[in-house]
Amino acid sequence: MQLVPKTKLAPEFDPILEKIILDVGGMKCAGCVNAVERQLTQHPGVKSACVNLATEVAVVESETGAVDADALAQRLTAVGFPTQQRKASGTLAGEISTLPDPAERQRREMQSSVRQLAIAAILLLLSGSGHFGNLGTSVLPVLNNIWFHCGLATIALLIPGRPILVDGWLGWRRNAPNMNTLVGLGTLTAYIASLVALLFPKMGWECFFDEPVMMLGFILLGRTLEQQARGRAAAAFRKLLALQPQVARLIANPEKGGMGSSSVEIPAEQVRVGEWVQVLPGDKIPVDGEVVVGKTTVDESMLTGEAVPVIKQPGDMVTGGTLNQSGAIAIQTTRTGSDTTLAQIVALVEAAQTRKAPVQKLADTVAGYFTYGVLTASVLTFVFWYFFGTHIWADVNMSGGMEMMGHAAHEAPYSPLLISLKLAIAVMVVACPCALGLATPTAILVGTAMGAERGLLIKGGDVLEKVHKLNTVVFDKTGTLTTGNPIVTDCLLIEEMGSKEPHSHSTTLTASPLPTPYSLIQLAAAVESGTHHPLAKAIQQEAQQQQLSIPEAVDFHTEPGLGVSAVVEGKVVLLGNWDWLSWHGIAINETAQQVAQDLATDGKTVVCVAVGGALAGLIAVSDTLRPDAQSTVDKLRQMGLRVMLLSGDRQEAANAIAKQLGLDSADVIAGVPPAKKAAAIQALQGQEIQREGIPNPKSKIQNSKSVVAMVGDGINDAPALSQADVGIALHSGTDVAMETAEIVLMRDRLNDVVESIQLSRATFNKIRQNLFWAFAYNTVGIPLAAGVLFPSLGFVLNPSGAAALMAFSSVSVVTNSILLRRLAHHP
């Protein structure tokens, strides 16, 4: 017996993966993210885990049934990260939830931060009063008492600083030290050193109780501002979540009982497919469905970004979450709950925020070892200055540079121990893993939420990075560059072609009868009744406009991209291109070929019609360009991108469309059936791209490998969309667009291709800026705190200054992400 190796042809052997979504609390920095991911990936059965600091969500992939989600949640909760499983609908799993919903949790955390900040601000004001000289002490003499400052520092540690110290200790104990560990060590060291100096004055040490108070004050200020900024960054996504309707009015079949039948309100997620729902003016439509009774206008701006309401009447489809404006309607449900378009958009946007850009891998790697590295740097700083630095630069110790170390430098001489200790504390406090952890997720959060507002669904950070590298955009022709609503322009019988001069055929219809009771259009319409191709729709519409009767056809057969056949009145009728007819042994004379070529040169698609094994005539169909096709192509070329056309039409027809768009014939790939479009994209990806003929070329991508975006309608183009580096689908109302493409354009606008690329580029630029500043901040801040400029310039960061700088770094990264809203191009 021969064993069959496991291949792609045997998918039954491949494990099916499921996704578990967890709401994770207690994460403060990139070190926490790394600790959570490590805990998840070490759990048996887990294939991969991705954690987002900005949204506090973890997405875990595992084999179906191999992992207990509750066990994962309990494991994280046990190590200090309160966790709860989330259902697909966005609600928390379990009969009793141990966590409030994320929005409520964020609100409570914000209130707690403001209270702690208020207490820290009062303590900071009292502690810093000594810096104002006699002004403060004349009002309250106690402000000059060192025991009073000791009390202020103690209160600061016990009240506003307590959560930081506890979390830092827990992180240390579970072998996952974080930013709070560093801050806690720094403040406690400063406090204990000052307390020793106070209790043992003969040692000659300086008391610097102000430092713990100032450090905690600046850190809490930074965290409060950071929380506010993160809340603003998530505002657009929360607004998207709020669109999900909660209640539906269930009614009996309105076609029998009418709209006036009694209704009952039930939760929208409990409506079943096929049931009828009443929607009154001003209501949100609760489910996806088809209008069966009534007429109204619907505001679909939440879905498409278009402010103009859309008229809906019986037979039209409506989407859950859109707003019914003018009339009462009854709809029959087609999709509910997590299957609705809005739910899919919400799930897609949320998933996008957990897909990391490859550029973040370096940041994640650094963050995993960051705290250990900083602690090592702090210890080395202390050792160097205590044993070497204070002896090598003994004169600097007594110079004015020492005044940088604290306001009371004149009160007591600085010992080498205190100098070394302060520098070590500054190193611990100045380092900020938070900036590294927030650099990517906040930018992706803002960018993807902005895109969702405008009907541009971008599926994650990895997509943003690929868009940034694009140098080629390939458009499908029919339904993408063109309107997808072709019309019949010519109908020529084979007997008439000999009398027509080349290039002189009329665009009016020739209705001469065939040697049968039916015209060419009637036979073609009968055959095309068995398919749904855009060309079939054009031929059927022409027959309807001429009010022709359609004969009955049987035995339909379709070959995608080639043609269709059927039996009409006992005769086999074939419709398709030359290859299709030749394959069936039907000869095409030179005159017919010349006429067909002339039609194709004019940009028309030629359908050959054969009856009973002989060519009977030609039907020419023309599909006009979208109004925004030309401007879209021009803008993409101005951005330095090569624009190409991919079509199943003959070369002449594709060249005619390309000529209208100003594209060179070298940028046209024609005669490619849907099944081979993916292979065409793959071949293009292996080519080197020459940039000489493109306006405003980007020098960095000259003569580079083609990085290809495929733009299609998301139906026939699914394989090509999947093969391309970036698949961009115009929303077609089908799930294949959501599943296959990496960018989905919900509006029926070709210009959104340009906008989606611009938004992706702007978002990725923000990610790079954030990562640059996060790395640069730590690269510069840690040496400054370690005293690298102390010997030469007498400059050194004191611990409170280091704390202020650390707080500023996180706030600046999040604020920079929010600025994306102002800088990104608006339509």
UniProtKB/TrEMBL annotation:
Record carries keyword Ligase: no
Sequence ranges assigned to domain HMA in this UniProt record: 18-84
Stretches of the chain forming a coiled coil according to its record: none
Subcellular location: Cell membrane
Entry's Gene Ontology cellular component terms: plasma membrane
Transmembrane segments: 117-140, 146-170, 182-200, 366-388, 423-446, 771-790, 802-820
Superkingdom per UniProt: Bacteria
Entry annotated with the keyword Membrane: yes
Family to which the UniProt record says this protein belongs: Belongs to the cation transport ATPase (P-type) (TC 3.A.3) family. Type IB subfamily.
PANTHER family: ATP7, ISOFORM B, COPPER-TRANSPORTING ATPASE PAA1, CHLOROPLASTIC
Protein name stated in the entry: CopB, Cu2+-exporting ATPase
